[in-house]
């Protein structure tokens, strides 16, 4: 999620003024932090994106999380019981997707340009199984997007980018506690007269660190051992709690 603010701190302004080569660049951007570290008690984090443009134009920011396969299932009632009736597997689905814009997209960006650059969840391209009924693909695709929005991992509405004058801009990117780990791609587009005239890409990494990182890597590299260990811990904890209550 993005949240624009209308105040740009002085250090960032000085950075832009002193940045070498800025006079010939149309678009310069950076992040306040390129690493979001997940530790104990992590509840989400905001990362500041800031930049400057050469002359007038509108700015669009697109943030995409690491891609993976996602299974979407359709449930139905059979004999009074909810069961999975059908499913569809989508490939290359970003784990996170959000955008921010300097103005509402409809005011400056034609739909064909938005579709070409996958700007907006309605233009997000995910790979469905081949030789599948297009209507079924669209129904499952809409369900996929609804699920991601409900999980606060996709954002259908564009947040606003705050400008200071005609050149300097900033926006806050909000990553929730359930944001998937991995490398994120932050795309920044400069739009003039309805066309993308320049674009920049910068990476951002969300990673577990410390004890959480050790558990995460152990669970993925040694899944069987992790499962057995988890069961043993649950049994011991249950036995201990039972013994404590009996003594009480």
Describe this structure in words.
By secondary structure, the protein is of the alpha+beta class. The protein is 27% helix and 39% strand. It folds into 2 domains: 2-63 and 96-207, Immunoglobulin-like (Sandwich), CATH 2.60.40; 210-248. It contains 5 helices and 13 strands. The strands form 3 sheets. A 6-stranded mixed sheet has the order 3-13-12-5-8-9. Strands 1, 2, 4, 10 and 11 form a 5-stranded antiparallel sheet that branches. Strands 6-7 form a two-stranded antiparallel ribbon. Helix 4 crosses helix 5. The longest helix is centred in the last third of the chain and has 25 residues, at 223-247. The radius of gyration is 23 Å and the shape is globular.
Fold topology:
Blueprint: E1 2-3, H1 10-18, E2 27-31, E3 35-38, E4 45-53, E5 58-64, E6 67-78, E7 81-94, E8 97-101, H2 111-116, H3 134-150, E9 159-160, E10 162-164, E11 168-175, E12 182-192, E13 195-208, H4 211-221, H5 223-247
Parallel strand pairs: 3-13, 8-9
Antiparallel strand pairs: 1-11, 2-4, 4-11, 5-8, 5-12, 6-7, 10-11, 12-13
Helix pairs in contact: 4-5
Quick recap of the structure?
The chain is of the alpha+beta class and 248 residues long.
Radius of gyration: 23 Å
Order of helices and strands: EHEEEEEEEHHEEEEEHH
- Would you identify the CATH architecture of the largest domain? Sandwich
Please tell me what the overall shape is. globular
Give the terminus-to-terminus CA distance: 49 Å
Please give the largest β-sheet. Answer: 6 strands, mixed
> What is the overall number of helices?
5
The CATH topology of the largest domain, please? Answer: Immunoglobulin-like
């Amino acid at each position: 999620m993005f949240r624009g603010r209308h105040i740009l701190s002085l250090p960032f302004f000085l950075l832009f003024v002193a940045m070498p080569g800025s006079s010939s660049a149309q678009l310069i951007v950076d992040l306040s932090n390129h690493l979001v570290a997940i530790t104990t008690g992590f509840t989400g984090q905001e990362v500041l994106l800031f930049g400057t443009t050469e002359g007038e134009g509108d700015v669009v920011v697109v943030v995409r999380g690491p891609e993976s396969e996602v299974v979407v299932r359709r449930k139905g009632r059979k004999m009074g019981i909810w069961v999975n009736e059908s499913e569809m597997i989508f490939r290359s689905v970003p784990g996170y997707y959000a955008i921010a814009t300097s103005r509402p997209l409809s005011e400056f960006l034609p739909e064909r340009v938005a579709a070409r650059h996958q700007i907006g969840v309605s233009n997000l391209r995910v790979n469905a199984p081949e030789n599948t009924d297009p209507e079924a693909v669209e129904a499952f695709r809409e369900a996929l997007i609804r699920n991601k929005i409900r999980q606060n991992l996709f954002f259908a509405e564009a947040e606003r980018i705050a400008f200071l004058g005609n050149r300097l801009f900033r926006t806050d990117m909000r990553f929730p506690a359930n944001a998937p780990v991995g490398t994120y791609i932050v795309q920044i587009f400069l739009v003039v007269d309805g066309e993308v005239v320049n674009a920049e890409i910068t990476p951002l990494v969300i990673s577990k660190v410390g004890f959480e990182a050790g558990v995460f890597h152990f669970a993925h590299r040694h899944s069987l051992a992790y499962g057995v260990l988890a069961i043993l811990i649950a049994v011991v904890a249950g036995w201990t709690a039972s013994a404590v209550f009996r003594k009480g």
